[in-house]
Specification:
Length: 270
Amino acid sequence: MNDRILHLGLIDDEAILLDAAALELAALDHPDMDLDDHVETLTAITERLAMLGGDAHSSTARATVLADVIAGEFGFVGDRVAYDDPANADLIQVMDRRRGLPVSLAILYVAAARRLSWPAHALNTPGHVLVQIGEGTAPVLIDPFNAGRIVEPPQLAALLARVIGPDGTATSEHLAPMTNRSVLLRLLLNQATRAEQGGDHARALTLYQRMTSVVPGSGHAWWERARLELIHDDVPAARASLSAMLEMTRDPATRTHIAAALDSLPGRDR
């Protein structure tokens, strides 16, 4: 079934439509579902934004319109009751339930803003994805999980302190815009982590296989895929995954680590 998403790993990152791609990924787990209603909802969100946001020229005004429409009118907010429910990282179920994780809700905000040609990015905020509306000297940060609320500097500092600890140092990397593939990778990582924590290694492996299809340059995804393939006693698959990782890695220390892992594999298939 990963053949259905291979194109996401081949096209330019800028050509990826985040919400459409996230729906494609979710559809792998709902092969018989008709997505027309979900597409209609996305279209309806865009139409309401276009209607209400025609005079929204500042980042703050645009952020306010996005929150009014996506959270206010359509009811998309964070799931505070069952945060770790796998449904919160499945965009089909997020759209059905109107509840989600920060990353899945960020996808809706960013994709909707971009359809109106409003600059928008999901940020690499640790533990809690935020969205940046606007660019240059006056961008605005919003929190999709909290109904699109604008995040002021004190709130941002508190959020980062909770994640990296009071003695940690926030860096520019914590607020760097993610590429489209990085957003999808983070969405899938959420699902894979929860699957493995629940003891479902087969499900976790499936999700890492999807990651390597969508983000073939992710060394972490290839490494974790190989680890899980070994758990399933599939030595040839693990060897292939490590070899794929070796081909794309140029860092000498990492290459040495991968080569050592390859050498430690059994010499023949089990």
